[in-house]
Amino acid sequence: AMGENDFDTAWAEGSALSTQEAIGYAKRGRGERKRPSSGWASLTPAERDVVRLVSEGLGNKDIATRLFVSPRTVQTHLTHVYSKLGLTSRVQLVQEAARHT
Predict the structure, then answer these.
(1) In the Cβ-directed half-sphere of 2, how many Cα atoms lie within 13 Å?
(2) 85 near 96, Cβ under 8 Å?
(3) pTM of the entire structure?
(4) Band of pLDDT at residue 34, cut at 50, 70 and 90
(5) What distance lies between CA 35 and its chain's CA centroid?
(6) What is the distance between the alpha carbons of residues 14 and 29, in angstroms, rounded to a whole number?
(7) Please, which of 60, 61, 73, 79 could form a disulfide with 69 given CB 3.0 to 4.6 Å?
């Protein structure tokens, strides 16, 4: 249904994932419910993936490609993360993430 070119692109991107990334992609959206509203425990699996990739130095577009989402979705995840953690910048997020790994 997606067309041969789009399928080939999606296949290549999926093939480039590590086992851990593929499992994370498959589990995305099935995280534990009734999370706290703030703090590290409040982050969804998708938000944690975004934080990990930000910590690796990737930009939103590269993160979006890795997670098979749009750059806008990455930005939305970051907005939620900033709000949940009481942060205001990517630098603060990387520093805070380093303390939690």
Answers:
(1) 7
(2) yes
(3) 0.67
(4) confident
(5) 17
(6) 18
(7) 73
